[in-house]
User: Fold these one by one.
Assistant:
Number 1:
Amino acid sequence: MRKFQFHPCGSFKETYQDELFLFKTDFGRLWVWISLILLFVVIPSSFGIQTLNLFSLMGIYAMAALGLNILTGFTGQLSLAHGSLFGIGAYTAAILGSRGGFPFFATIPLAAILAAAVGIILSFPAARLRNLYLCIITIGGQLIIEYVLLHWKGLTGGAEGIAITAGESGPLSVSQGTTFYLVVFIALATMIWVAANLMRTRFGRAFVAIRDNETAAEGMGIPIFRYKLLSFAISSFYAGFAGALFAYHAREISPGLFSMGMSMEFLAMIVVGGLGSIPGAVFGSIFIVFLNELLGVLARVFLETGAVTAMIPIREFFYGGFIVLFITVKPKGISTIWERTKSVFRHWPF
Amino acid sequence: MLEIRHISAFYPFRIQVLEEISMIVKERQIVALLGRKGAGKTTTLKTASGLLSFEGGKVVGGSIKFKGEPILHLPPEEIIQKGMIQVLEGRQEFKHLTIEENLRVGTAVRRGKPYRKDLDMVYSYFPALLSRRKVLAGRCSAAELQMVVIGRAMMSHPELLLIDEPSLGLAPLLVGEIFRIVQRLNREQDKTIMLGGQNMNMALQIADYFYLLEEGRIVREGSAEPLRKDPNLSEPGLSGYPFNRV
């Protein structure tokens, strides 16, 4: 029988094959199983539909943030067009699902593929630029997509947007609630697994190499332009997939939802969570969604006390203030707390 | 193996760095490219490895042939595939990758081919890296990083290694160690090596031939043997050495 290994100390690897495992010890594997049981068994059976919807929203944002983290955190390409690519995913799903009669499980991948295609088109000029120039060109991309969503009324419904019918897929109805929650988190778990493995392949190493030192990466024979294109495509695919799920979650979408504000929100998620960290993208989205909810609750309290006019700007003030405070206290994001916690367990009882 | 003929190189705004450079590197030779700071050593190496255009530079006139094939204007990726790679000045590690991941980046042009024997080979030349292979490069010492970047270049199976300033910022003992390893790579692995740098003393100890650059032109060349025996050659720098009497 195999001997379980809970501490990395004494965990010697004899072959390169041994080093390829995603988890170095059984402790990591145990945590994954515990998390999966919590996520797919305990939570759906313990919470009501409203809470599950909130969790679903977190999962959707985590997917999009994970995509942005691949592009910005791992490849070092700052993008402020992620919100609009998220929007392309949402609109594609809405149009295909509501007007085209496509089933739920067909609209989601199609939306992701279309978003990836738009991401590739956007990346052609963007991948040749760096730093502020790159930032400006992605803002340009965001504004163009926003304009199209707002003014192509025949397709997008203009400022009024589109209402989406509940996701039907054969006999299965994937509307809000438990089924939707399960679909979102199965997709998120798969995407986390794909991203974690991607970062261990030559593609992932090339992304980090490009971020760390572009000249040296070029000098090692990494075709930088092609790899940047790939990173944009993967990131947009994640955004499109998440956007499509968001459309089914929101039931009604309009261009205002996918503005520059949403791109900034995704950026805040990965900075607060931790740039270049896969758990960081998840933590960041949890933080931002909770912060929004908390401020929403506070707003309701204020409304009840009659401070209606004061609340609207104060909400924005607190939202920005919390993010600034968090980045000041933890500049490397929540993922550093996670890493430290893991290292305490790793060295326990010493 | 490498033949550079009448190459002139410019950086943006028509700043000329090289003027009608010509040189030949023969198979299994160690060639030292010497000169003061700003003489054009790094630009010569970057011109050969294809990196000059990536940095906005431009080559005018002339030709570069590697193993008889013209390689001027080819991207670095294709030049590496043909068997020539440059080890850049100033280490240039990927600090968020571990030592082993840094080494594996060196296999980028070999796509999916086995790399384990190459890792073993690199560790046999740089045993200090073996025990530190899971450490992030950003946490390594200058000497370890110099080993990493040479090892990383070796992972691409080069026939010609262009090594720029291998002794930059290293303690004298470590400089000697790095140069000894470079010499072993030449003798044991049959690698042709072109060394660029200001550490003339050490470079000439292992070189077969040298080129001296000044203000973008080759002002002297010849066998390294007579210079090796010259008692005047005791200082590592170039200042004060009477090159006009060589």
Note: Chain B has a mean pLDDT of 83.
Number 2:
Amino acid sequence: MNDPSPVTGTSGHVATGVWRTARLIAGKDLRIERRSRVIVNQVLPFAALVMVLFAFALDNDDVLLRTAPGLVWLGTIFSLLILVQRSFAVESADGALDALRVAGVNPAGIFLGKSLALAVQLVVLEMLLVALAMVLYQAQLDAMGAVLLVTTIAPATTGLAFVGTLYGGLAAGARGRETLLPLLLFPVVAPVLIGATRATEAAFGAGSAAIDEGWPWVGVLLVFSALFGVGGTLAFGPLIEE
Amino acid sequence: MQSPAGTEAGTEAGTDGRTGNRTTDRHTNGNEDSAHVATTQTPPTASGSAHRAAGSARAGTGTRFTRVLGVLTIAALAVLALFALVLSPPDVVQGESVRILYAHVGTVWVAYLAFIVTAVSSGAYLWKRTSSLTWDRIAGASAEIGVLFMAITLFTGSLWGRITWGTFWVWDARVTTTAFLFVTYVGYLAVRGLGGTHEQRARRSAVVALLAVLEIPLVHFSVRLWRSVHQDASVAGSTDVKLDDEMLFTLLLGTVAFTMMYVWYVLHRQRVLAMEDALDDKGLDLALAERRNEGLEARDMTEGTTR
């Protein structure tokens, strides 16, 4: 944190304080990622590898074209797991999260900041996966499809980031968190996988899905994102204050 | 603590119930060790026999209420078995396979009830005015029983599905949501096992339980929407069966019997959890004191022989 002044969570400035904290935390996380290059050197290659492995497993151009949307989101969710673990490995090393709490930083700000940083990383990842789906699986994307895809990615990504941060914070510092996190995370993100896959199917025109079929799913994703955004902001404090 | 006095206390507690009920006895014996710890108020330096006496005063997790409830539950289950397997008629469409449903419906009802109890007690724990570790233990006990009953539900359901629909599994919205509910609460139990202080465990798991309440309707809604888009196999038709009185009675009896079983189990399990917590808190101190006493006794004896 380059700002020495403490972020107060009291009277009057609560809202601005939370957002400022969130911006600072997100900036810190992204700076760490930029300098360590773990995302570029490890996570993105992993995601690309998963896409190639899917092609080996399914071994049929028609099947790949049909399943491309689902594979994009499966790849995203697998990589989300790594990103979340990475995001909280940074915090639990050297007791960074404890230090933030001792400094009286608002937990809602920490939650929103870490979610924001995670969302930025996820967007980069999703762009790569969509590009790979178009190159490797021959998925097609027209102008309207691109609009739908961008509208899908926005709420899906924020939803995934909120859930990831929430459960990542829960498992942070606990024994056996590597194995616990997927058990907690995968059931919760199922609505995102269903909704985002169906909307992306419509965007790609996979399985003769029309563009119109995609929009209701964007609504599902928005509801999911809003609920876990609010729920996470409220729950994150009690979760990390131990 | 495998001392003769300990086992003696266990059999004593088991026989004074006179329920003839094996499950109660097992609970009592199995948790004899922690019973000592939970009820002993004597200081750790006191002699071993004194605190064993204090422990046997109230050993086990049974009370008069749970013993009566246990007997009634077993009786109800026996009557249920009689009605479900013998007295009720086979279904016109499903034949004998309808008998599976008497276990299926009762257990799924209990599983949902258990998860509601978990959510409510988690809320009660987090609410400052009612905050108590007892709520946390009720939530945990209830979730454990809920997961068990949900597993039975999924198992009986897939057996029934194999006979009636020809497949063990259908991607029906309700079936899928049930499976998700099961996995979610398996995760909840894993969170309870994370370690840390009792308060840490309680707060973490309470938050997870309340998040599950948020998650389940979303999963159900999205799965239903998904299935309505990809309508492959229609299941709804086959469940529209007219029930005769005996079948309805058996279903109702199953629900009541399994609910009694749930209450019985949760009471015992919650007390066992309380004992485990107490064991965590005091077990090491007591064990140290006992070993120290043993050491002292051994030294006295060797001094006695050398003298």
Note: Confidence is low (pLDDT under 50) at residues 1-57, 230-238 of chain B.
